[in-house]
Amino acid sequence: MPAELIFNVAIQGILTGLVYGLMALGLSVIFGVVRVVNFAHGEMMTIASYAAIIAFGAWGIDPLVAMVPIAVVLFALGYIMQAVLINPFINRPEHSQFMLLAAVALIMVNGLLMIFGPDARNVMVDYALDSFEIGPLLVDKVRVITAALAMAITAGLFAFFKLSRTGKAIRACADNHMGALVVGLNVKRLYALTFGIGSACVGAAGAMMALLIDTTPNIGPAFTLQAFVIVIVGGLGSMPGALLGGVLIGLSEAMSGLFFAPSAKSMFAIAILILVLLFRPQGLLGRKA
Amino acid sequence: MSVKITRRKFTATAAGAALVAGTAPFNIVKAQSNTLKIGSIHPRSGFQAQLGIACQRGIDLAPRVLKGMGIDANVEIMNADTESNVDVARSRAEKLINDGANVLIGAFDSGQSAAIAQVAEQKGVPYIINVAAAPQITEQGYKFVFRNFPTAPMLVGDGLNLMKGVFEKSGITPKTAVFMHVNDTFGQSMAGAIKAMAPRFNLPFQIVDTIAYDPQAKDLSVEIAKAKATGAELLMPVTRLNDAIMIIREMVKQRWEPPIVMSPGAPGFYEGQFYKTLGKFSNYLLTNVPWYNPRSSITQKLLDEFTKSYKGELFELNVGFSFEAVMVAVSAFNAAKSTNGAALADAIRKTNITDHVMAGGPLQFDAKGQNVNIKSVTLQNLEQRPKVVLPLEIAEDNLTLPMPSWSKR
């Protein structure tokens, strides 16, 4: 097998994995702090993709530009969801939380179906089919841009949680819920803020995804599953872990497609998940409970 | 043990018996109804939704068009959505039959059609398959299952024959080919048929690689990179719609430009959404596929109604075959003058409709319930719509090969 083919495929896998990582980051942030698994994660990303498609179709706004207002809108959606819907369920059993968010996911999918119908939609920007030629390598321009943005957003989020007072307060809530209450932090507001931040990540990832894949109302559950696989592999609650998990899954899918059967790509991703669960249950960069 | 019958028990039993006796005539009325209830079962949501909706359009238009042709088409259409899922297809078929459907029509997908066929056979309700190619469906000895669509070997046989015609007409004969197929029931059937039949057709090219991919894949960059690395001069894809779009998009991105891209008989390239999404990049692709006969008067009537009802939508084979399935059901109902399953199945078996929509011979079914008279044509996407280029007697435009470079469009 020619070396340039292997390099080409590996680069594509890593770049796609970085966007997967950003998508999973939202799930990881929310779980890490609020301890609620967002089962409507993929569906929220689909809403963001549709928002990018509308912005492009109606006003010609590039999804990479529309990404900012979409992230803001998703932030507001996430904040409201946490404040109004999820906060009352925080102390309820996990199956109640699951049912709540699964119901939200169902409503979102069916709402999208009612509004947009089942047809696949996408965004064809001028550069959608362009590639960079670097020697024998041919690298998809859209993937390069989206991967770079995914890394920048992750770095920004990391800095926010490490350096800002609000970020530190959110981390305090995650580390010691009781302690946070005792020192007078408004935990419910911080939870809503965290859900909003996680949703904003999903919004940005969804806008970028509109450039990479065709969007249909039904792709949400597949993305929710993929995000789960990534955060479990990377470590639930770990931001670098989400990015690493994304890259690992993207790369494994690409290489398994190349060396084995392309139709068995997702099987390899699940195999990695099983191995991680067996030998490092807290995930590659996760902390032991 | 003695059973004591009181006056109250006797009265209740007698009232029950009277009720049963009183309603019995309604059962007879149901069996001899003047209306044929057609259960239309298609994937109208999920990843095959667009195609299921296209089938549904053909079914919805059929009663109106048939009445316009003076045919007594007293039908009631009952709709069900398989959600692109085999298990859902099975349960929806059962529900349609329980709700009184006399005939089932569907289901675009081979896996879903196979599941529905089992239910229909078990319940003794005729099932007319409008679109589904897996050969095994009509190889089970079913008595109530009929298919007005070519099997995968028929598709492949016609497709490979037409390929030779394309090479001859264009003067371009590829030496190598790569075969890509969606890894579902249909794709596997087509792959099996090509593997079995290609040697018999003495084709001028060698298949250097076969690449199967997940039907719900979101990205086909690896698959195209592999295909490109073979250096093949012909790409033979067996696709659905979304993957067909992904394949061409990736080919443009990876600048892979084989002289010929020709589907041996699969959906994708000729569908409305394909043209809308890819624009100029949709041109020059070829598909060998059963298609409507543009010279048939019924086709023109159906096309007129379709254009009036679905402005901007593409009239294609899913619409045509679905319309014909209703045509077969109505013809059988008018002949049998009954909604009884066995009587309808007998009448369908004797179907002989010479003037119809799709290219090929008369609508007839063999002992297995298969219409063997359907013929494929070669379509080429020109000016962002499918045009018949072969056979020449029904051609709408000239074959244009080799495909121009992606960058020169």
Structural features, described:
The complex is a heterodimer of chains A (289) and B (409). Helices cover 74% and strands 3% of the residues of chain A. By secondary structure, chain A is an all-alpha fold. Chain A has one domain (21-116, 142-279). Chain A is globular and about 60 Å long. The model of chain A has no long low-confidence stretch (mean pLDDT 90). With 409 residues, chain B is α/β, with parallel strands linked by helices. Chain B has 2 domains: 36-150 and 294-375, Rossmann fold; 153-290 and 377-408, Response regulator (Rossmann fold). Chain B has 12 helices and 12 strands. Chain B has helices at 7-31, 49-68, 86-98, 110-123, 152-170, 185-197, 221-229, 241-253, 272-278, 297-309, 317-336, 341-349; strands at residues 36-42, 75-81, 103-106, 127-129, 145-147, 176-182, 206-213, 234-238, 260-263, 286-290, 376-382, 385-390. In chain B, a hairpin with a 2-residue loop joins β11 (376-382) and β12. In chain B, α8 (241-253) packs parallel to α9. Chain B is globular. Chain B starts with 6 loop residues before the first helix and ends in a 19-residue tail after the last strand. Classes of the chains: A mainly alpha (289), B alpha/beta (409). The A-B interface holds A 1-2, 5, 8-9, 12-13, 16, 113, 117-120, 122, 124, 128-131, 138, 140, 212-214, 216, 218-219, 222, 253-254, 257-258, 261-263, 265-266 and B 44-47, 49-50, 53, 183, 211-214, 216-223, 225-226, 229, 241-242, 245-246, 249, 252-255, 273, 277, 279, 281, 406.
Give the tally of structural domains of chain A.
1
Number of domains of chain B: 2
**Annotated CATH architecture of the largest domain in chain B:** 3-Layer(aba) Sandwich
Question: What is the helix tally of chain B?
Answer: 12
